[in-house]
Amino acid sequence: MTVSAALRGAEVSAAANAAAGSEVAFDKVSVAYRGSVVLKPLTMSVAAGEILAMIGPSGSGKTTALRAVAGFVRPAAGRILIGGTDVTNLPPYERGLAMVVQNYALFPHMRVSENVAFGLNARGAARDLIAQRVEDSLRIVGMSKFASRFPRELSGGQQQRVAIARALAVRPRVLLLDEPLSALDAQIRRSMVEEIARLHADLPDLTILYVTHDQSEALTLADRIAILKDGELSAIGAAGELYRRPPNRFAAEFLGRANLLPVVVERVAQQSGFVEARLGETRVVASGADHPAGAERLLCVRPQNLTLTCEAERSNRIEAVLREIHWQGELTHLVAEIGESILRVVATRLPNPPARGDKLEFFFSPSDANLIVEDGSV
Amino acid sequence: MLVWSLSGRALVWSFAAILLGIVFVAPLAVIICASFSEQWNGILPTGFTLEHYRDAMNGAARDAVYASLVTGLVASLLALVTGAWAALALRARVDQWAGALGLLFFIPSAVPSVSVGLGLLVAFSQKPLLLNGTTAIVFVAHYVLISAFAFGNISAGLSRLAPDYEEVASCLGARPAYRLMHVTLPLVAPYLVAAFGLSFALSMGELGATVMVYPPGWVTMPVAIFGLTDRGDIFSGAALTMILVVVTLALLIGLERAPIRSAAPR
């Protein structure tokens, strides 16, 4: 039985929630604590059924934004809309949401089944419906066998599964995930990421706001990623596009490693979407047509997009002096010097490893490189 | 380990045993011996009797047990309810008033209990708050004296409770009352039990304020013990003291072993 089929039999509030809509919109939402602004006016939206990951370092405002949606933080200004309805002044229990937090927050005095039934009991659901939902939700997360256990009798991964089941049981309009995997070890975290991805594939209508500081979780799960910095939206876009073409230094560096080399724009070809720029004495071609000639920009190239072999599509060539080489089994990391900048390269195959001090030629494709600004916000 | 050598540890243990023996065990042992003694003229008592216990379980002494139990239960329940209420209300406040209001609860515990009794006697001597000569003023006196400990215990429990539990419950649709009854209170249940136990124990032993306010028909055990020893009936006073100790301990042990399905989050 698929998840969708499993849920169909108990669609009472699911249908109501679907009708109410599940898109989330931040309309110039700002939050301040005792006069100190922790979230600057934020405007963005999450489409129904979409997973939006909000990432950023500590203090960036990502959790504050999530808590504002949940209703735990009252915005100093702006509106929050869910399904087109202004919920800014609604208490959390009237917003039709569910939340999963880092430490699971399973009620220790309740058994697994009682935990999962909690939201439905609180909403006064019928006993038959509750029994059905508990069974379905536990089956979805593979925890049916543990229904009669107490949370303390479960591992961290199992507790997080129960927390997800508890959230799904109420058929929320929006599921809020606040660093849900941070407390798990790396191996379990990877498998939980895959499980959440599978879960969303089975529940395509569920809108998910996912807060994390782990860029790999965000890239794996999210349809779109919002990067926050100092309480401000630094970048937002489709996960793949944001990774390939970050708009600024912060976004480039937060989403994986990036080589950021200072260049000066020389010529823009509007039709092709490429731009010619000067990197020291070398001319390179990169994507990004909206930069004026003469402007100082950063050339962004991911380490894995640089090679030591020249191929037809890799028409850009730069010279650098190798400073370090680290073999790490499947990958070899090269650190080279180009002018005053450091160039990092990740090579998967390197039959004849170069030596430190060698002058090397690195190649990359114009479509794998783009020009970005030093800093900026959306 | 502060002391490493075996001889040093033996010395420290011996010192601790002597200190505990003199401070804690000896007074209690004297009371136990006295409660079973026919006479005590020399260093040790002479003769064994249960007569003092038989006396204590009859007449005025039995009434004192009843008065103490009822007073302890009523005052402790009041302290538990209002202490929990105040702790919950003040926890939600983050301004300077929260600290000031919390301090109010602790003021009676810093005032001599005799003074509290005197204050109540004066305060409730006029209509419409005329409580002098009623059992209610004894309940009020005990409540005033123990409420700080109930409030302190519950506040400590609430401060250790991560907000995640209540936030997740709210998000799942639990209204404040439902959340309080099904999440908050069960999670601080051990602290509620401790608050009740401590309040009850304090009430059972309260003398200073009670002697100022008790009406003739409502003599609590400490007042009865004080009366007996004041009249020189040391043996009966000792027997009543032992009954007080046993009753209090029995209730505290019972509370400790109560099957509370919660315990603090692990």
Rounded mean pLDDT of chain A is 88
Number of domains of chain A: 2
Quickly give the CATH architecture of the largest domain in chain B: Orthogonal Bundle
Structural class of chain A: alpha+beta
Sheet-strand content of chain A, in percent, reads 25-35%
Number of strands of chain A: 19
Question: How would you describe the shape of chain B?
Answer: globular
Beta percentage of chain B is under 5%
Model regions low in confidence, pLDDT < 50 over at least 5 residues of chain A: 1-12
The helix content of chain A, as a percent range, equals 25-40%
- In the CATH hierarchy, the architecture of the largest domain in chain A is 3-Layer(aba) Sandwich
Could you outline the blueprint of secondary structure elements for this entry?
The complex is a heterodimer of chains A (378) and B (266).
Chain A: H1 3-8, H2 12-20, E1 24-33, E2 36-46, E3 51-55, H3 62-70, E4 77-82, E5 85-86, E6 97-101, H4 112-122, H5 127-140, H6 156-169, E7 174-178, H7 186-202, E8 207-212, H8 215-221, E9 224-229, E10 232-238, H9 239-244, H10 249-254, E11 259-269, E12 274-279, E13 282-287, E14 296-301, E15 316-328, E16 331-338, E17 341-347, E18 359-364, E19 369-372
Parallel strand pairs in A: 3-8, 3-9, 6-7, 7-8
Antiparallel strand pairs in A: 1-2, 1-4, 4-5, 9-10, 11-12, 11-14, 12-13, 14-19, 15-16, 15-18, 16-17
Chain B: H1 6-35, E1 37-39, E2 46-48, H2 51-56, H3 59-91, H4 96-110, H5 113-123, H6 135-159, H7 163-171, H8 176-187, H9 189-204, H10 208-213, H11 221-230, H12 234-256
Antiparallel strand pairs in B: 1-2
